[in-house]
Amino acid sequence: xxxxxxxxxxxxxxxxxxxxxxxxxxxxxxxxxxxxxxxxxxxxxxxxxxxxxxxxxxxxxxxxxxxxxxxxxxxxxxxxxxxxxxxxxxxxxxxxxxxxxxxxxxxxxxxxxxxxxxxxxxxxxxxxxxxxxxxxxxxxxxxxxxxxxxxxxxxxxxxxxxxxxxxxxxxxxxxxxxxxxxxxxxxxxxxxxxxxxxxxxxxxxxxxxxxxxxxxxxxxxxxxxxxxxxxxxxxxxxxxxxxxxxxxx
Amino acid sequence: xxxxxxxxxxxxxxxxxxxxxxxxxxxxxxxxxxxxxxxxxxxxxxxxxxxxxxxxxxxxxxxxxxxxxxxxxxxxxxxxxxxxxxxxxxxxxxxxxxxxxxxxxxxxxxxxxxxxxxxxxxxxxxxxxxxxxxxxxxxxxxxxxxxxxxxxxxxxxxxxxxxxxxxxxxxxxxxxxxxxxxxxxxxxxxxxxxxxxxxxxxxxxxxxxxxxxxxxxxxxxxxxxxxxxxxxxxxxxxxxxxxxxxxxxxxxxxxxxxxxxxxxxxxxxxxxxxxxxxxxxxxxxxxxxxxxxxxxxxxxxxxxxxxx
Lengths: 249, 308
Known about the structure:
The structure holds two protein chains of two kinds.
Chain A: H1 2-10, H2 16-33, H3 39-42, H4 45-79, H5 82-88, H6 91-124, H7 132-160, H8 163-180, H9 185-188, H10 196-199, E1 202-208, E2 213-218, H11 223-246
Antiparallel strand pairs in A: 1-2
Chain B: E1 5-14, E2 17-23, E3 26-27, E4 32-36, H1 43-50, E5 58-63, E6 66-67, H2 73-77, E7 80-83, H3 95-106, H4 112-119, H5 135-147, E8 153-157, H6 165-182, E9 185-190, H7 193-197, E10 202-207, E11 210-216, H8 217-222, E12 225-232, H9 235-244, E13 250-252, E14 255-261, H10 266-279, E15 283-290, H11 293-303
Parallel strand pairs in B: 4-9, 4-10, 7-8, 8-9
Antiparallel strand pairs in B: 1-2, 1-3, 1-5, 5-6, 10-11, 12-14, 12-15, 13-14
Helix pairs in contact in B: 3-4, 4-5, 9-10
Protein name (chain A): ABC transporter permease
Keywords (chain B): ATP-binding, Nucleotide-binding
Protein name (chain B): ABC transporter ATP-binding protein
């Protein structure tokens, strides 16, 4: 608890909340700009949103997670505080404080981002019934990939002691992840940065070339990839903890 | 009285390179202990091992009467203040906010923050962001953090680094007075030997990870006994007496009436002066020379020989 309180104190003037608001803001602007108008589009409104959001996530979230993770440790590097902190608290409590704080930031980002879905539905009066089950699945998948990327980027930051590699990997990861989505599904499994897309439950069922009308359909939930994402996230979390535990300062 | 710090055969190696070699250190309670050595001697590594920041490859550390281990480390370190290498501080926070984080983690009342700020003369800058501080101010903030909770033991690694001359003088006075003013024992490292003489009562000299000397400053200063300068009216006659007694004297080219004699016991010196007076050399001055700490340190480190 003291470690988490310390993280809250350290967060003063770092504007982390603004960062967490940034992503939902971009989603609202991006998806809101493509707001449906015809009755056919309104009847497909939520499906279109739940199809688009994983693509937007694949572009933005690897960078966002890199920013959140690197900022969380970078202040310790810049302030040269590790030697002091390890005499005031156990390594376990420092890492636990960081992990809880970071997880809450990621959770807040995911909640705010996905809260845009029902809000946009209401604003635009979608006629499609709100797909609760698919929405929860998307939330779980988003959170799982976010946390996996967050702890991966945190590990990179711990290794390098510099935010730049983590940010570069986040940017390159976003591009490669998006690109992999247009390659055979098997290829996309090798690019964790883009897992948002193969985990998505929505796909384009039909595109009417004459009317430019897109009809979306659902596909089976990818539980296997979701389980792998969670396991990978746990592995990266454990590796980051191991690094903090064994690092001599 | 039980020592505050004791190490037994403490060792640290990095990839086969021994940095600290079977170190047996004893820091008595209530003293300012100067830990001396050139850069790379192993001082910082030793201090980090005392704080559990670096794992020893051999030996053990006793802190405040308890063998240091992972279970009791934080409990013991809560009674300890430390400043290792460069000072720490969150650059986006003020000094007061930095100290609040340290105080909360250390379990110290926040009202102690004002006291430590006052001790290091940072009260007027307490609400400025640490990112705007000079290195000297950051160093003082580091000392303030170490002083939180009036610890029984302070471990300070070259705390005067980056301070201006006035700051150095201030820091020396603060540290030298600490055993009396707060009851704390201070272990302080430095490679600036001259500044240690003004602060410490006990000294340990480390080189290549080995302890060359440990004991009171006064004992070290006994090794400081140098030769004798003899000023006479007739240097040629004096030289003849010295030669007859088998004493090798060196004449100073710029002061032909002054002879430099090797160190000798007081009785032998008294007899020699009597002989010189009897020969008519005319003894007009006798000055006992003392080596400064730098010279002693160099003579100790040159041969790596242990000095009792």
